Amino acid sequence: MREERAKEGYSTYNTIDRGGTITELMNKCETETGLKPPVPQWEKPPYGPHAGLEYVRSWFERMRTEGMSAWDKA
């Protein structure tokens, strides 16, 4: 079936585009799905060997400051 849809011009990837920014999607998650939105990983302290790397520390710091809106700009 994938191959048939690809021939018709459809993407071969199974993606769902609900529209809107990440912030908007997170805000209406519970209304649309009945489930609370996922907890962003930067709300908990990083752990493991990678946690000491500069780019990991700066990413966590950036995401704690900007939150989901960091992806709204893309």
Question: Termini separation (Å)?
Answer: 32 Å
Strand content range? under 5%
How many domains, in number, for the residues?
1
Overall geometry comes to extended
Low confidence ranges: none
Largest sheet: none
Q: What string, H for helix and E for strand, traces the elements in order?
A: HHHHH
Average pLDDT, all residues: 83
User: What value does the Rg take, in angstroms?
Assistant: 17 Å
Going by helix content, strand content and strand pairing, the class is mainly alpha
What is the count of β-strands?
Answer: 0
The share of residues in helices is 40-55%
Helix tally equals: 5
What is the topological layout?
Blueprint lengths: L1 H6 L14 H6 L1 H5 L20 H13 L2 H4 L2
Walk me through the structure.
The chain is mainly α and 74 residues long. The protein has one domain (19-72). It is 46% helix and 0% strand. The protein has 5 helices and no strands. The chain has helices spanning 2-7, 22-27, 29-33, 54-66, 69-72. The chain starts with a helix and ends with a helix. The mean pLDDT is 83.
